[in-house]
Specification:
The chain has 142 residues and is mostly beta strands. It has a single domain, classed as 3-Layer(aba) Sandwich (Protein Transport Mog1p, Chain A), CATH 3.40.1000. It is 13% helix and 41% strand. Strands 3, 4, 5, 6, 7, 8, 9 and 10 form an eight-stranded antiparallel sheet that branches.
Length: 142
């Protein structure tokens, strides 16, 4: 398990990924990991909960990530969690897919975004990653 946000959250980040903050600045509301082997990256981000229905969360946040949106497809609902997985091809990164899970933490007015950017289909991998996420310290959310 990898400690995130100073240990307030943990998740099972694959060992083939390295912490991007070791070599570039990362905003304090994000954790970014990049693959040693390919162009994949994982971003875990804490954002203010947006006033959109649960079934539209992934599409809303995907559009925020990529304004030159070509398509958004919600591919899966997440069993036993509030969220969805979506992917898109965008702008000059049309071969790159962004798979996103949005976990709504209503009690803390927070949306927790988990993105896996890849040129391959990584739905199974992001679902597995999300299933390992544990919040240890809710004071992180304000």
């Amino acid at each position: 398990m990898t400690d995130l946000f100073g240990g307030a959250i943990s998740a099972d980040i694959p060992s083939s990924f390295v912490d991007a903050s070791d070599f570039r600045p990362i905003p304090s509301h994000q954790e970014v990991y990049v693959s040693k082997n390919c162009n994949d990256s994982i971003i875990i981000e804490i954002v203010e909960m947006q006033p959109v229905p649960i079934e539209s969360m992934a599409q809303y946040h995907l559009k925020e990530v990529c304004e030159s949106l070509t398509s958004v497809v919600v591919e899966h609902d997440i069993p036993n969690q509030i969220g969805a997985v979506g992917s898109l091809g965008c702008g000059n990164l049309a071969n790159q897919r962004i798979h996103m899970i949005v976990l709504r933490l209503e009690a803390y007015s927070t949306d927790l975004l988990i993105s896996w950017n890849s040129s391959a289909d990584c739905c199974a991998r992001i679902l597995c990653l999300a299933s390992t996420l544990i919040v240890h310290d809710t004071s992180l959310f304000g």
